[in-house]
Amino acid sequence: MGFEQLAALKEQLTKQAKAESRAKTRRAPPKASARPTKPVNEPAKPVDPVLQAIVKLQKRFPQTFPKNPAPKVPLKIGIFEDLVPHAQELGLTESVLRDTIRTWCRGTRYWTCLVEGAPRVDLAGQEAGHVSNADANRAQQLQAHRAARAQSRPVTAPKPS
User: Fold this and answer.
1) What is the Cα–Cα distance from 29 to 61, expressed in whole angstroms?
2) Beta bridge partners of 130
3) Paired strand residues for 127
4) How far apart are CA 31 and CA 58, in angstroms?
C-alpha cells in the first residue's frame, strides 16, 4: 500500500469515526448524576409560594432580607405597607406578601435579632426606629416557649429497617 492509499484510508476512517460519534451523542442516554432523578411521569412537587416570595424579597431587598447564614435584621414597624407598592413588580399578591412577612418574622433567627435598642431597617436597609423593650421581651418569651415545647416532646427512636 502506498502513501496516498494510506492517507485516503485514514481520511475515510476519520469520517466514519466522526459519524459514529455523532450518532452516539444523539442516542446516548443522559449521564447519571449524583442527584437522584424523578420518574418522568411523576409530577413535580409544588413550591411553597411563601418560599418563592422570600427568595424574591432577598434578591430585591438584600439589606432588609439577608440570606442565611447572615443574621436577620429587625424590620421597620409597618414594613408590609412599604412592600405593597412593590407587590406587582415582584409578582406577588398582597395575601402572599402578608404570609411572607409573617413567616419571615417568626422563628429563632428573627427573634434573636430583636434586642432592645437594635435599629430597625426599612426596605433600603436604612435605620427606621429601634426595637422597644416590649418587643425584645416578647421575642425572648417566644424563644423560651418554643424551647420548652421542644423539650416536652418525647424523643422517638429511629425505626429499624
Assistant:
1) 42
2) 119
3) 121
4) 34
Beta bridge partners of 75: 121
pTM value surpassing 0.85: no
Q: Kindly list the distances between the CA atom of residue 107 and the CA atoms of 35, 101, 139, 140, in Å, as whole numbers in the listed order.
A: 30, 12, 9, 11
Name the residue among 61, 73, 148, 83 with its Cα closest to residue 105: 73
Tell me the domain boundaries of the chain.
49-151
Burial class (CB within 10 angstroms; exposed 0-12, middle 13-18, buried 19+) of 64: buried
CA 124 to chain centre: 21
CA-CA distances (angstroms) from residue 110 to 14, 32, 72, 82, 106? 64, 40, 6, 19, 6
Amino acid at 101: I
Instruction: Compute the C-alpha angle 144/147/149, nearest 5°.
Output: 110
Top-level class of domain 49-151:
mainly alpha
**Would you say residue 108 has pLDDT above 80?**
yes
Based on its alpha-carbon atoms, the radius of gyration of the chain, rounded to whole angstroms, reads 29
109-118 per-position pLDDT tens digit: 999 999 999 9
As a whole number of angstroms, the longest Cα–Cα distance in the chain is 97
- Residue 99's nearest CA partner among 114, 80, 85 is 80
